[in-house]
Amino acid sequence: MALISSPVIKPKPFPFSPLPPSIKLSKVLNFGHRTTQTHQLKTTFRRQSSSLFDVSNKNNGNGKMQAVADANGTSLEPEEAEQQRNWRRILLSDVVVKRKRQVLWGRKWNALDIGTAGVILAMHTLCLFAPFYVNWGAFWVAFGLYVVTGLLGITLSFHRNLSHRSFKLPKWLEYSFAYCGVLALQCGGPSNVGDLEKQPFYQFVKSTYILHPLALAVLLYAAGGFPFLVWGMGVRTVWVFHITWLVNSACHVWGKQTWNTGDLSRNNWWVALLAFGEGWHNNHHAFEYSARHGLEWWQLDMTWYVVRFLQAIGLATDVKLPTEVHRQRMAINN
Ligand SMILES: [Zn+2]
Ligand SMILES: [Zn+2]
User: Fold this and answer.
1) What is the pLDDT of residues 70-90, one digit of tens each?
2) Rg for the chain, CA atoms, rounded
3) Which residue stretches of the chain have pLDDT < 70?
4) What separation in Å is there between the alpha carbon of 8 and the centre of ligand 1?
């Protein structure tokens, strides 16, 4: 798993962020990608291919695509085919990757990179203490915060509400959920999206960003001592980091393609389970405006159930779903 970078749209501040320096971490929205750039497959491959790996889909089974890019974003010429001997197929997948080397050492680190790496390192270090400072209270605090920050904060707020505008919420609720996302400590936040920068709430959050997770850490320590800190901050944030990262890696490698998206996105049930529905990533690439990612009844999508509930009690409005025309257009045998 540790073998690929996020092959599509939004780079994330993950383990030593394999991002080209030109992509600012402050532009990151996790559990997905920004609306404006989604689906620009070519661009995506070109940008991403200068990161950790080149990604290629040699043959996805139905022959509808062959996407190959090299580090400069140009298509592979026949004489370069020899280089493909270095390419390796990912286990149980039809995706092939080629290792690149300039992730850590051949790049310039700016202050934000270093800060991000510091936070990530600190959280992982906290995790080392987890086996020695465990109790049920700490476990449930971590679990609760995983749901609150991961589901309400990242998938529901940052991704579906703010990034894709899949539904509308009253401001007080929109802000509350966005605040949950800030506590996920994913070094980004929603301040990059569209007109959000003009809203005082998001300006405030952006300028005081790190203070909020810090305040939570202090609160946790006061409530339950070191075990709460280790589990509620360390284990929980690292858990959510890695799940976020899975959406952008595993969901382009393992799983089924239900829609003719012309890219590598897959529907992956086990990522969906961990990531509150975000694993139905081929669905998402097909209908990125949709508030619902798990489109079949059996495609578990916890985030959607919450949105549906909010809609039922009148809080979520303008809830967008795939149209029938669009479904037909995206169908694979179309
Ligand atoms: Zn994707
Ligand atoms: Zn998205």
Assistant:
1) 444 444 455 555 555 666 777
2) 20
3) 1-87, 98-106, 187-194, 334
4) 5
The ligand whose atoms approach the alpha carbon of 248 most closely is 1
Q: Are 28 and 68 in contact (CB under 8 A)?
A: no
Calculate ∠ Cα 281-166-17, nearest 5°: 50
Residue 232 and residue 151: Cα distance in Å, rounded?
16
Which residue spans within the chain are E strands per DSSP?
53-57, 88-89, 95-99
Q: Are 281 and 271 in contact (CB under 8 A)?
A: yes
Indicate the pairing of strand 95-99 with strand 53-57.
Answer: antiparallel
Residue 134 tokens, joined: 């465990």
Ramachandran bin of 113, using left for φ above 0, alpha for ψ from -120 to 50, beta for the remaining angles = alpha
Q: 223: which 2 tokens?
A: 């409530």
With beta carbons less than 8 A apart as the criterion, state whether 295 and 283 touch: yes
Q: Ligand 2 centroid to 164 CA: how many Å?
A: 7
Report CA dihedral (317, 321, 325, 326) to the nearest 10 degrees: 120
Here the tokens at position 163 are: 């990034």
| Distance of alpha carbon 240 from alpha carbon 315, whole angstroms | 27
What is the per-residue pLDDT across 197-207, written as a single tens digit (0 to 9) for each? Answer: 889 999 999 89
SS3 assignment, position 53: strand
Cβ burial 14-48 (10 Å sphere, 16+ → b, else e): bbbbbbeeebebeebbbbbbbbeebbebeebbbbb
Residue 110: how many other CB atoms lie within 10 Å: 12
Ligand 1 centroid to residue 122 C-alpha, Å: 28
Contacts of 234 (CB under 8 A, 6+ apart): 123, 124, 125, 126, 127, 129, 130
pLDDT at position 108: 79
Give CA–CA dist 304/259, Å, rounded: 20
Question: How far is ligand 2, taken at its centre, from the CA of residue 248, in Å?
Answer: 10
The length of the chain, given as a count of residues = 334
CA of 284 to the centre of ligand 1 (A): 8
**Listed residues: CB within 5 A of ion ligand 1:** 8, 265
